[in-house]
Amino acid sequence: MSRKSAPFLTKCLVFTLALAASLLTAFSDASAIESATPASVGLSAAKVQDFKTELQRRIDAGEMPGAVLMVVKNGKVAVKEALGFRDRPSAAPMTADAIFLVASMTKPIVSVAVMQLLEQGKLALSDPLSKYIPEFKDMKVGVEKTNAEGKSELVLVNAVREITIQDLLRHTSGLTYGYFDDMLVDKAYLSNNLYDPDLNLEQQVAKLAKLPLKYQPGTTWNYGLSTDVLGRVIEVITGKSLDIALQQMVTGPLGMQDTNFWVDESKYSRVAFSNINPATGNYLTKPPLKMKPTRLSGGGGLYTTAADYSRFCQMLLNKGQLEGVRILSRKSVELMTANHLPPGVRAVKTSDVSPTPENGLGFGLGFAVRAEAGLTGYLGSKGEFFWLGSSGTNFVIDPVEKMITILLVLQPDKMYSNLRLMRNMGESMISD
Description:
The chain has eleven helices and 16 strands. The protein has two domains: 39-108 and 240-427, Beta-lactamase; 114-238, Beta-lactamase.
């Protein structure tokens, strides 16, 4: 090598190393959204501190194991706090990158994948479910009646119409869960072992199709296995298992690196755990598997982080795109976030987040939507959309304030309390 070529090669080496470092940094921080101080995006630092203080009070009282609070406003992370314990028994502190079971916060992700299939012409909202899963062709509805002996019995009647894809997205399918009520249809769900861990999704849905519906399709909003069935529809249409389909369609393109139906052993040290149930000595929520489970629950099986889920929420707030990656069209997001419950549809009221007129709420395609500025018991804006997980996790997207609030806590016995806390203290942080 000549002396003249040495400087040139040195410059090339420096450039190559710099480029590699830049790419490595970008890859390792792919899930990051730009940060900002609360004040710079119109939040009160004092109110942020009040929220943290109240979370810490609940942690110190033993009510709450630990929490991750994340607030994104105007596209920037203004609050990202980890408080308490990731695992209280071992005194492991909570970390901002902790991985949580988010339960029904899985539903919006599956719903987005369904809307992608709609945009691709592979399904329509009006399609009957039986087009993709023939077993649902001739469904029966279970009606409770009192017999001559004065006892309740289940009488089966024909479904007036078929379940549609729209019914599944807005929970008017007539399907239920079985464990939120004690009616005869609910008992039939449980006695038929629908939640046997050895059943895969195809087998569970096939067994479900043999059971009666709780309500006539399209007549009643009732929370149930609708989104799990949509997960199976995705598998049928794509020819892929639900985990692969979601990774290719939603979580992969959005850079949600820590979102899946199980937690790899290499990441297990970041798993968040619930408090211990004093009656059993076990955690209130089951620890995740380290390998792919037999059944992939589109209604409640995902694990994720606050950072990952904020990217999903920001995509929706951006009308379907994030950082140049388009997941859905603007019109699809507008349709999803509109109220899809007609005036004549009855909503079973189980809590103050049930989409009833008296709650000022409706239901879109995958989450609740706020139809009125008033009537609800918490702060917010007309047009916001949100949902929660039975594990205790919550999120809300407020398009008026351009704000996302995520509270991840594994506290299933306090999920509604956490929702009210997040909504009232979160929205009260807005100072401008």
